[in-house]
Amino acid sequence: MDLGIKGKWALVCGASKGLGLGCAQALSAEGVNVVIVARGVSELERAAEGLRAANPGVTVVPVVADITTPEGRAKALDAPGGPGGSFDIVVTNAGGPPPGDFRGWDRDAWLKALDANMITPIELIKATVDGMAQRGFGRIVNITSSAVKAPIDILGLSNGARSGLTGFVAGVSRSGLAAQGVTINNLLPGAFDTDRLKVTFAGAASKTGQPVESLMDARRQTIPARRFGQPEEFGAICAFLCSQHAGYMTGQNVLADGGAYPGTY
């Protein structure tokens, strides 16, 4: 299927590895030029080299920046070699806040979580959505979490911040932008085979004394697909949401979790 987005420009955040990289790979494979943002220099350069090698006709602009800061967002939006802020596609993504007990989180912890997982996506939407509307095409995909639908008690910071973003998107996506060719959707990952998942299991192993692989096997058994997701298949879903074919989908929370969520709705 031709997704109809060849030659467009995408900003992909947190794109040096994991789910963000999976999205950048899928978009660039469709001929989309990408500005990829991350904090780590070496990993970002490796990601950029891989994208260029796989897709020689695509422009790849790596930007080393912290997207959760105003300075980082300005650097990404105005990257030399990029579209000068005129992005057709924006994929927002930032690392989730740490787990813990809500009794131990102070105001600073909450503000940091809100900055990364709610305010940053809103600021990126604000910076790009009017230009998209003027040009008659735009796709914004926010990588959030399956915890938005099924909250996890130890991930309260993430539950709160990402749910706030979800509520904001529910309103703004229906504010008339769809009539101008602009859609805003959230993509909710469950358990994907990423570094973050490995770190989570390593932490659990250190607390419980159980082997990491035993914990991972137990988690797989709770997923109807009996496996963890791969970043490449997550990226493919993202690319579809960014395509010409997804113009009638907006304000949605698209869950990719191998069937782990047990609810009907």
From TrEMBL:
CDD domains: BKR_like_SDR_like
Coiled coil: none
Listed Gene3D superfamilies: NAD(P)-binding Rossmann-like Domain
Family stated for the protein in its record: Belongs to the short-chain dehydrogenases/reductases (SDR) family.
UniProt name for this protein: 3-oxoacyl-ACP reductase
Organism: Hydrogenophaga crassostreae
